[in-house]
């Protein structure tokens, strides 16, 4: 497994991009010399995803390597489109997933990234971390854990009693239970007191907050390649803040919903910025082992892991989220990694064709 480690700051805004689709390329004739793979990649992505992922650099590099990206219309029968070598998609609708499964049964030679039944595992924040909880990586340069969490399906007034019975303590991170591709699915709150918990909207997951130095490791996985990116996260919470802070923070926008000392929060973020580039990354052997294990257990090849290191420890890590087909466009050098990945799929397919398997 190849590992890349880079530092990236998300402060910059995404550029406007124009999406180009080149014509499908024909496979080599029988008896012709072995050439670079010719690959037609159909994609069924939202406009937002197309804009962030299919950037000009990726399209140009792919075209130079004989790869063409062709849009798929969900309003037309999939069997009437193509032919495709690979289908890229990120749609959570049950109708589309059924269409894709039926298509793959008729066309098993087409590589679907990734299988809908595997993606479903990540559509629920309770089930997505179950595979991690079963891992035993203690002998691989670190311990990988999952935070304790509690699922609330309805009636937020029962939350204080439920967290007491579960042995959880404040503050707690609140996330929607279902990951359905909408903006609501990415809402994230840090609750400081019990009263604020009753203002949240179930179904949701309450996850224990672990101090981690305000730094998050985003581990991007593309096939067998891994790239690690440092990102800013929520600052640590101390005893004084727990005693004096009310309400909760909208973690996505840092929006003040109730009385929260946000000036102190922002000051801490500015103070920690110079140290972001000095922070030690998780050990390479640990990430390689983790990537292999999760890729096999989840049955996915395009995903990322949100990982934190517990404050005061050197090798205790927590996985707090897993995302399918994440924002690769924000990752430095993603064009080369993704193009290499597609070419590796083409090479494997072509070798099987030559061997008759």
Automatic annotation (TrEMBL):
Manner of cofactor binding, per the entry note: Binds 2 magnesium ions per subunit.
Annotated binding of Mg(2+) 1, by residue: 306, 321
One of the protein's GO biological processes: inositol trisphosphate metabolic process
Positions bound to 1D-myo-inositol 1,3,4-trisphosphate: 49, 90, 186, 218, 323, 327
Enzyme class: transferase
Cellular component terms (Gene Ontology): cytoplasm
Catalytic activity, EC: 2.7.1.134
Catalytic activity, as annotated: 1D-myo-inositol 3,4,5,6-tetrakisphosphate + ATP = 1D-myo-inositol 1,3,4,5,6-pentakisphosphate + ADP + H(+); 1D-myo-inositol 1,3,4-trisphosphate + ATP = 1D-myo-inositol 1,3,4,5-tetrakisphosphate + ADP + H(+); 1D-myo-inositol 1,3,4-trisphosphate + ATP = 1D-myo-inositol 1,3,4,6-tetrakisphosphate + ADP + H(+)
InterPro entries: Inositol_tetrakis-P_1-kinase, InsP(3)kin_ATP-grasp, ITPK1_N
Highest taxon in the source lineage: Eukaryota
Pfam family, any one: Ins134_P3_kin
Listed cofactors: Mg(2+)
GO molecular function list: ATP binding; inositol-1,3,4-trisphosphate 5-kinase activity; inositol-1,3,4-trisphosphate 6-kinase activity; inositol-3,4,5,6-tetrakisphosphate 1-kinase activity; magnesium ion binding
Coiled coil ranges: none
Residues annotated as domain Inositol 1,3,4-trisphosphate 5/6-kinase ATP-grasp: 141-343
Binding positions (ATP): 125, 175, 207-218, 233
Signal peptide extent: none
Binding residues annotated for Mg(2+) 2, in chain numbering: 321, 323
Residue ranges constituting the Inositol-tetrakisphosphate 1-kinase N-terminal domain according to the UniProt record: 40-119
SUPFAM superfamilies recorded: Glutathione synthetase ATP-binding domain-like
Homology family: Belongs to the ITPK1 family.
Subunit-level organization: Monomer.
Role played: Kinase that can phosphorylate various inositol polyphosphate such as Ins(3,4,5,6)P4 or Ins(1,3,4)P3.
Protein name: Inositol-tetrakisphosphate 1-kinase
